Structure formats: structure tokens, C-alpha cells
User: Which sequence fits this backbone?
């Protein structure tokens, strides 16, 4: 980022929440679930949100995806104010900002072949050439480590980890600039979690996408995040470099949260890359 270039995402004093009917004649009002959130995400950066259940992590993710109304404050993407886009959010933003959610089986239509599920967003965003689409589908399968033959299967013919790889392929096939990963590996068993986390990190190196990574598991967060934001009761109580948060937390709530979670090995970007390389070699040797 040059001095003049804005961050990819900038959230300022954001208050957002859920619409509620305010009475027969009252229209709707917003019941805030997050308060005064200030955060930026740089290009190619992974920012993680941690915090207890109900602390507002997913709500912040949904606000960034422009799925929730904003009561006050602002959201900027590449320097453009997108605070009030709501339902009329331009298709271009829907392409640039993708999401991967917890339950891949719920996000894939059981009656659609995998090829159809990945093809749909490509067509929606204007790709019509059959040849070009086929090339993209095959590229996506290679990218997430699935066989091309998986394109001709239905979701229930794949394992949970394979389904999540399809969800990742579908999100990344549009070359997004930001991916909101909301508990993207929580439903998977431990070894599959590790594989998917490593895959996400590898893909980030390749594509340069930024991640907003929402998770309960502090071990995973320490592994993948460049910076961490700690949420409590709808507020961002601490924000900093991952290692600083884990080794020298300032906020009392962060200290309590870390105490309640077993420590994990600290890793920088280079160490993470080396560890992934080792894991791949182990996998190949197995
Ligand atoms: N659809 C909804 N309608 C109204 N309120 C909601 C809705 N979804 C969440 N909330 C409220 O917003 C607050 C924040 O919830 P949110 O889902 O963002 O928390 P979270 O930190 O992501 O929790 P979890 O880790 O359990 O997913 C909670 O008080 C919750 O009750």
C-alpha cells in the first residue's frame, strides 16, 4: 500500500444490527448488535475476530458483506463509501467480497452438480463462453486440491472437507479481493481443519486476497492471522498484531479469553509457510 492508497476495507465508528418492526405504524428500527467498531484490513492481510459466542463477530462480518443495515458510522471499500448500499449493492462488490460459512452442506444446493454450483456465480457475473467456464472450473478444482471428476458429483457424494473445498473454490473462482471466512472450518474434524487452513493460507499467497477470519478457536487464529481483533458484547475491545495479542494482551477480557484456551505455538508468516510445506510433504509421504 502506498502512502496515498486507502486500505482495502475501512470501518469507522460502526454501529449495525438487525431490523425490528417498531409497531404497527412505526416502520422498522435497527437493534444494534455491534457498537463503535473501528478497523481496517490491508491488501493480502488476514484479520481475525475472536470472542465468545454472541460477541458480534458474525454481525460484523455480515455488515461488511452489506447484508445488514448500518445505524451509524461508515464502511469504505477501496476508499469508496459503501455504508448505505444494502439491497442495491452493486454486482461488482458481490464479486469482490465473498464469504465462506461454517456448514458447506447448507451452502451447496443438494440437487445441483458441483460443476453447476461453481458455474452459477461465473454466469451471474457475466461469463458466457462455455470453453472459458470449463477452463475456470478445472482451474478451481486444481486450486483447491480436488479432482476434476468431482465436478460431476452431487454434494452428498463428497466428504465434509471436500464440500468445504468446493465452497472455497466457488468463493475464489471470482478472484475476490476480500473473503469473509465465518467459522469456515469449525464443522470439520481436526486434521481436515488443518488441511483447509493451510489451503486458505496457500491460496492467499497465490491470489493476494485479504481474509476476515471469524473463529472461536484461538489456536487456529494464531496460526493464520496477521492481526487479531477481540470482541466482547458487541465491541472491539482489543486490536493488534497476532503475536502481541497472544503474548502481551492488554485488555482484561482478552487475558481471560486467552487463559481459558490452551496455548499454541507462535508462528510468523515465514514459519507458517515452512510448516505448511512440511505438512504437505508428510501428507505426500503417507
Ligand atoms: N438474526 C438475528 N436477529 C436478531 N439478533 C441477532 C441475529 N443474529 C445475531 N443476533 C444478535 O446479535 C448479537 C451478536 O451475535 P453474533 O452472531 O454476531 O455473535 P458471534 O460472536 O458471531 O457469535 P457465534 O460465535 O455464536 O456465532 C447477539 O446478541 C445475537 O443475539
Assistant:
Amino acid at each position: 500500500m502506498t502512502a496515498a492508497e486507502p486500505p482495502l476495507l475501512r470501518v469507522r465508528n460502526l454501529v449495525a444490527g438487525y431490523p425490528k418492526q417498531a409497531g404497527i405504524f412505526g416502520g422498522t428500527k435497527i437493534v444494534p448488535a455491534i457498537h463503535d467498531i473501528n478497523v481496517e484490513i490491508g491488501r493480502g492481510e488476514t484479520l481475525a475476530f475472536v470472542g465468545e459466542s454472541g460477541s458480534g463477530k458474525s454481525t460484523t462480518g455480515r455488515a461488511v458483506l452489506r447484508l445488514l443495515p448500518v445505524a451509524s458510522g461508515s464502511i469504505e471499500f477501496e476508499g469508496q463509501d459503501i455504508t448505505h448500499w444494502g439491497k442495491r449493492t452493486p454486482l461488482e462488490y458481490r464479486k469482490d467480497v465473498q464469504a465462506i460459512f461454517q456448514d458447506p452442506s447448507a451452502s451447496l444446493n443438494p440437487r445441483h452438480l458441483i460443476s453447476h454450483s461453481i458455474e452459477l456465480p461465473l454466469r451471474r457475473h457475466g461469463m458466457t463462453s462455455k470453453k472459458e467456464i470449463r477452463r475456470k472450473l478445472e482451474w478451481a478444482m486444481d486450486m483447491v486440491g480436488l479432482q476434476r471428476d468431482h465436478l460431476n458429483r452431487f454434494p452428498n457424494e463428497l466428504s465434509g472437507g471436500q464440500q468445504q473445498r468446493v465452497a472455497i473454490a466457488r468463493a475464489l473462482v471470482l478472484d475476490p479481493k476480500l473473503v469473509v471466512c465465518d467459522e469456515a472450518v469449525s464443522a470439520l474434524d481436526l486434521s481436515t481443519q488443518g488441511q483447509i487452513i493451510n489451503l486458505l493460507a496457500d491460496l492467499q499467497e497465490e491470489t493476494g486476497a485479504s481474509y476476515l477470519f471469524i473463529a472461536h478457536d484461538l489456536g487456529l487464529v494464531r496460526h493464520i492471522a496477521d492481526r487479531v481483533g477481540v470482541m466482547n458484547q458487541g465491541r472491539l475491545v482489543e486490536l493488534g498484531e497476532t503475536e502481541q495479542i497472544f503474548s502481551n494482551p492488554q485488555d482484561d477480557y482478552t487475558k481471560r479469553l486467552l487463559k481459558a484456551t490452551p496455548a499454541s505455538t507462535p508462528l510468523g508468516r515465514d514459519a507458517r509457510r515452512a510448516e505448511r510445506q512440511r505438512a504437505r510433504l508428510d501428507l505426500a509421504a503417507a
Summary: The chain has a mean pLDDT of 89. The longest strand covers residues 28-41. Residues 110 and 149 are 17 Å apart (CA to CA). The pocket of adenosine-5'-triphosphate is lined by residues 18, 33, 51, 53-59, 216 (CB under 6 Å).
